[in-house]
# Entry
Amino acid sequence: MQPVRIIKKYPNRRLYDTKLGVYITLDEVKKLVLDRIAFQVIDVRTKKDLTQNTLLQIITEQETTSTPIFTNALLQDFIRSYHEKSHHIFTGYLEQVMNLFLHQKELLKNQWSLYQKLLANPALIQQIPQMQKLTTTPTSSPQKKQSSHPKKRLKNRNK
# Structure
């Protein structure tokens, strides 16, 4: 695992990448996020962690330059959630929902990839009806359905 990259933020609002030894832009910080590179933005004067503020700044820019993800109503609900006693539960919920969304997205991506491979191979397409027959053929004899009503079960047992 790579160490967290330190980005220093100077009073003139410039960002300095300590690993590369160069000033970088907010777009380059966004690229770090997209590349899943761990980083931390530190204010040079106060030593305060400004990572969250920087990420929010990137989101704000995204919201104004492309199709917004956050509606006004959703943003208002976010603001209201800060005044709830259970806002820490809301944070955990949002993280879980995002993880679930990303997991589902990955599953769909994999399924689509398999589908594309299937379409690219005519021999596999010809085998589909045979595979369907194998999966739809009953492998065992059907069992007699039992009643869920207790009195009827007793009657059936006594027969």
Summary: The CA atoms of residues 126 and 142 lie 31 Å apart. The mean pLDDT is 85. Helices lie at 26-34, 51-65, 72-81, 87-120, 122-136, 150-158. The beta strands are 5-9, 15-17, 22-24, 39-43.
